[in-house]
Design goal:
Elements (H helix, E strand, L loop, with lengths): L3 E6 L1 H8 L7 H8 L4 H5 L6 H7 L1 E9 L1 E2 L11 E2 L2 H21 L4 E3 L3 H12 L7 E8 L10 H6 L2 E5 L19 H13 L2 E3 L5 H10 L4 E6 L16 H9 L4 E3 L3 H4 L14 H16 L5 E3 L25 H7 L4 H19 L3
Parallel strand pairs: 1-2, 2-6, 3-4, 5-6, 6-7, 7-8, 8-9, 9-10, 10-11
Length: 361
């Protein structure tokens, strides 16, 4: 049963920043926004519920994402925080978005919090039927919403299962464009996460902090959305994954989600360049190949699109009009010699295995 799992989508952020309604189709959302500033600020959407169904996107790692006010994206950006208390409030608001989504649309979305709910969800997808609910696994991107380690239990009870301690730098560690190691508060956070069974997401962590976490964190480790630094040696900053970090994730039996975003696939690309001729193959498939060659198998790579997370149609490869087109990656990989088993693993099987191994119960 070939299913797609997308390990990174900022659905709640988009809902609160732009009032995007992901029960609608991509075409409906684009039509409703065509006379607004939203496409200028965040590109045209890539995500809609009918498109999930077309591509058989069964599970999404749905994020809680709030930026520090120093990294505010524009006057329109209402998802920022000035202090820890405000961060907590913003993250709570986004968490409520997901709970309302599943409560109001149970036939379309459901929360995945444990092994039993995952099994029931996948059994549902095995049933005949035109549509199936999309499962949401909640991922906290940047952990400033956690006011202290004791509060981790609250977030766990509310369904959060994955935490990345950084987006920008936080009091826990350095982050994108803001280098720095794990702090004492960061180590206390990781200790609390390990006790409860959280998965640690290294995405956005500074290289030094990521290496320290690989050495020190005893629980499951992933990178939900990144690409390979070795293929983009001129890429500025600390956002992409160096090979030693990729190896460390593999050694911990982790998975790396790749981002089909042109700036992460072609270091000198600018939006004014357009998308013509820039396709998933070879831009994305080269990163898949790189990880598979390092691993000697296809068991450590997946997708983490980050669709609508600050970019959309205008910044995606030319053969991606929406998330529905991710299904076309199967034929592309097969043409490059990947077996059916390999393709199943890359499109979703590796992420499902991670969840089956690490969700409680």
């Amino acid at each position: 049963m070939r299913l797609i799992v997308d390990a990174h989508e900022d659905l709640a952020w988009n809902n609160l920043a732009f009032e995007r309604d992901y029960t609608r189709s991509v075409a409906e959302t684009r039509k409703s926004e065509e006379n607004s500033d939203i496409p200028f600020n965040n590109d045209n959407t890539m995500i809609g519920w009918p498109e999930y169904q077309q591509a058989r996107v069964a599970v999404v790692f749905s994020t809680l994402f709030v930026a520090p006010i120093r990294r505010k994206l524009g006057d329109w950006d209402n998802q920022t925080y000035g202090d820890i208390k405000e961060a907590h409030q913003r993250y709570r608001q986004q968490l409520d978005v997901y709970h309302r989504l599943v409560d109001n649309h149970p036939a379309r979305f459901r929360l995945i919090q444990d092994g039993a709910s995952l099994k029931n969800h996948l059994d549902d997808w095995k049933e005949d039927g035109e549509t199936h609910p999309v499962g949401l696994v909640i991922l906290m991107e940047g952990a400033e919403g956690v006011q202290n380690p004791a509060e981790l239990e609250f977030w766990w009870e509310k369904g959060v299962r994955i935490i990345g301690p950084a987006w920008a730098g936080t009091r826990f560690c350095g982050g994108t464009q803001e280098p720095g190691p794990l702090t004492d508060e960061g180590r206390a956070l990781l200790n609390g996460m390990a006790e409860l069974g959280f998965t640690l997401d290294l995405s956005h962590m500074d290289e030094l902090a990521a290496r320290q976490a690989l050495d020190e964190y005893p629980g499951p480790i992933i990178a939900s959305h990144a690409t390979c630094a070795a293929l983009l040696p001129e890429f500025p900053g600390n956002r992409l994954l160096k090979d030693d970090i990729i190896r460390g994730i593999m050694e911990r039996n982790g998975t790396i989600g790749l981002v089909p975003m042109l700036p992460f696939l072609k270091h000198d690309w600018k939006k004014t360049d357009g998308r013509q001729g820039l396709n998933m193959d070879p831009l994305l498939t080269n990163h898949i190949d790189h990880i598979c060659q390092m691993a000697g198998d296809s068991n450590h790579v997946g997708l983490g699109t980050d669709f609508d997370g600050g970019f959309g149609l205008e910044s995606a490869p030319a053969d991606l009009d929406s998330i529905a087109d991710l299904a076309n990656l199967a034929g592309i990989l097969e043409s490059r010699g990947y077996s059916n088993q390999d393709v199943d693993a890359i499109l979703g099987g590796n992420w499902l295995h991670h969840l089956q191994e690490n969700l409680p119960g």
